[in-house]
Write a structure and sequence with these properties.
Blueprint (H helix, E strand, L loop, with lengths): L6 E2 L10 E5 L13 H5 L3 E6 L15 H15 L4 E6 L1 H12 L7 E4 L8 H14 L5 H8 L4 H4 L1 H13 L2 H12 L14 E6 L7 H10 L3 E6 L6 H4 L1 H14 L3
Parallel strand pairs: 2-3, 2-4, 4-5, 5-6, 6-7
Antiparallel strand pairs: 1-3
């Protein structure tokens, strides 16, 4: 069994407040949450997750699955000594939300999956992506990612942060990106959604062509306790594009479900 390395930042926020873990999308890093963090850290003790092979976390020497990644995150949260934890993640981080809810419901009593789905493109797509970055580096993804990740006005409205996010993609080791892409290639929870009993928020950006409204509807229809929300003015990186709206949606959801 593979246990990939991850990193969790020391929690910050009011002493005694509930723990909230925030996960990022493939090829980016915790920086996507920077502008949403103040509002969230006023209510929660927030820990930022860094995925394997990203932002200085070691590249896994072997393939891993999202279930194995979820086990690593669960172990890391237990190590913080502040659980149970709420969790919110974007894209692969959102897929991870669903796996955590399925595999570790006592540790994660409520989760939010942003810009994600119960399946995210299929095996062939992600294996091709892994092969591409191994051959040409993550720089080959800069132009297509800029058009997919951000809504029409996001780069103009937030040039500094969106520019840093694209630099993070360029700086992500090819093998680190590829290992996460391989994990997504085997990810498909559509048949398992009915086993998820904890409350789930399925959030999507108004302009997202990946974590579409249809994918969120599939999640909500499948889980026992699901709800959906659209983040207006965002595409595939809602916390970076619309931090206030994203933080408000998360705070409302966790308050409504008593977390």
């Amino acid at each position: 069994m593979t246990h990939p390395d991850i990193a969790l930042s020391p929690p910050s926020g009011p002493p005694g407040a509930p723990l909230l873990v925030l996960g990022h999308s493939i090829g980016t890093g915790p920086l996507i949450w920077e502008d949403a963090l103040p509002a969230l850290a006023a209510r929660f003790r927030v820990s930022l997750l860094t995925l394997p092979g990203h932002a200085g976390v070691p590249v896994p020497p072997e393939p891993f699955s999202l279930r194995e990644l979820a086990d690593a995150v669960a172990d890391g949260v237990r190590g913080l000594g502040e659980g149970p934890a709420r969790y919110a993640g974007v894209s692969i981080g959102g897929a991870l939300a669903l796996v955590l809810a399925l595999e570790h419901p006592k540790l994660f009593p409520a989760v939010a999956a942003l810009a994600a789905g119960a399946e995210l493109g299929g095996e062939a797509h992600w294996l091709e992506r892994a092969a591409l970055v191994r051959e040409q580096s993550t720089s080959v993804l800069l132009i297509p990612s800029a058009s997919i990740w951000f809504a029409p006005d996001s780069i103009a409205n937030r040039p500094e942060l969106t520019g840093r996010i694209l630099h993070a993609l360029q700086d992500t080791p090819a093998e680190g990106y590829a290992r996460c892409a391989e994990a997504l290639s085997s990810y498909d929870l559509r048949a398992d959604l009915g086993r998820i009993r904890v409350p789930v928020l399925a959030a999507w950006g108004e302009h997202d062509t990946v974590g579409t409204e249809a994918r969120q509807a599939e999640i909500v229809a499948g889980v026992r306790n699901g709800r959906a929300v659209r983040i207006d003015g965002a595409a595939h990186q809602p916390p970076a594009e619309q931090p206030e709206r994203t933080a408000a949606a998360l705070l409302r959801f966790f308050a409504e479900v008593g977390s």
